[in-house]
Each structure stands twice: as C-alpha cells, then as structure tokens.
Amino acid sequence: MKGIILAGGSATRLHPITKVVNKHLLPIYNKPMIYYPLASLMLAGIREVLIISSPDDLEDFKNLFGSGEDYGINISYKIQQRPNGIAESFIIAEDFIGESNVCLILGDNIFYGDNFNVILSKANKAMNEEGKALVFGYHVRDPERYGVIEFDENLNVKSIEEKPKNPKSSYAVVGLYFFPNDVIKIAKTLKPSNRGELEITDVNSNYLKENRLKVEILNKGFAWLDTGTHDSLLQASNFIQTIELRQNLMVGSIEQIAYEKGYITSDKLIQIASKMQNIAYGQNLIKIAQETLI
Known about the structure:
The chain is an alpha/beta fold.
C-alpha cells in the first residue's frame, strides 16, 4: 500500500494569507497542516508517500520533510501543473504507485478519534482482501457543500453525488480514500467536469457501478476537520490545542508515530527533539522517548 497527499491548489478562500504561502504549510496549532494527513497515512502503516503540489510550492515541502528518512519512511514529490482535480493525482502518481494499491488523502483534512489507527488498518486489510474501493462517511449539517454518499442499513453504497442541491443523505465523503491499483486506469478514462476538473466522485461512481465501493462510517465521537476557510482553520487550531493541553496528548505528531511504530529509535527521536528542546513540542517528544527507556 502506498500513500498520496494532494497538497496543491490555489486556496483562494484563504486569501490573503495564502497569496504567498501554500495553505498546507499554515500552522494548525503547533504543527504545519500537512503533518496531520501524513500522520494519518503513517497510522495506516503506509511508509511510502508521495506529496503532490504546485511547481511554486514543492521545494518548501522538500525542505520540510526531505526524503522522510528522519521518520523512517520514504517521501517523494511530484508536480501538479494546474489544479485539474483530485482524480488527476492517480495519473501523476502512476510510476510511484506501480503495482500497489493506494491511499489518497487531501492535505487539508484532519482526523482525530479513538482507535483511528485500528480503523485505518482494518480499511487497508479489507481493501487488499476484497479488491474494493473504500471511502469514509461523516455526518454533517450542510451536506450540499460536499460529496454526499447514500447507503442502506447494511452500509451498501446506493449513490454518490458531488455537492447536490438536494442531498439524499447527511453523510459527506471525507478526503480519505482507499483504492485498488486499477484506479489509475479508471482515472485515465475520466473527462473533465463542468468545473474543468477530473472529479474524485467520478472515480467513486465507477467503482459503485461495478459494485466495488464500500463505505466506513466515522462515528459521532470522531472529529473530521476540513481546514479550507478562515473560520475552519481557526477552529481546527483551537480543537488541537484543547486536546493536547487538556488531555496531555500529541495529535498528528509524525515524530511520535514514527517512534511508536518502530520506524525510528529512541536515540533518533531524542536527536530530532533536541533541536526543539526549548519549546513544548520538543520537550514532549523527549519525555516520550525517555519514558519508554525506563
């Protein structure tokens, strides 16, 4: 299984703060936004990751993560020349994906909830065993803003629509998708929508027609944060701050996940943390490493 983070786009809804900075590098409390989707892929056990972004921004991501060696993973990079749609990711990533299945996550989606790593591992396993695509549904109050999924009492998908005027359910499809390898072939057959984009909903619709689309519902105790507006950006930061300070937890820490997954040693974690030892983030990482050595 390989992972893709789509971190392109012009982010006009976040102007003026994104006029010169890629939105996925904006801070969500104490970490760059892109840390959170990368953390999700790592929780799913994915160690080969491709970051796709615009020509002007890709070097910034390389400067942030390098090869991924510090986290015990492999990170590579590709350019999306123009924001031609989410589904174009699979065409751009064809060589990277190779013969593997793939998980795509949007760079501005943040997930937090109990046993998220278990949910991801289960999704990964189910897709590999059944050869079906898998999406996640989340109950929202304004489904007309999202891709909407309709399903029966057994979670069999009945329909999926992009930003419908009359939604058939209140469940949005979040920006996290598991696909079999043939998603590349499907993406190549798509035609641009009225927006001029290759739509991820059309990819999902192809799998639905073949009875190869499953849905996993994220329950009410789960948080899905879409950070595409000024308000949601602030709300996400406040949410992460509350969780970390009140529960003494780290959310979306790729260094911690790398250590707990066994990708890096305690010495490596301390080495990374020592460069941030004057701030709470680094101090927390040092504490995590030292506690497991006792």
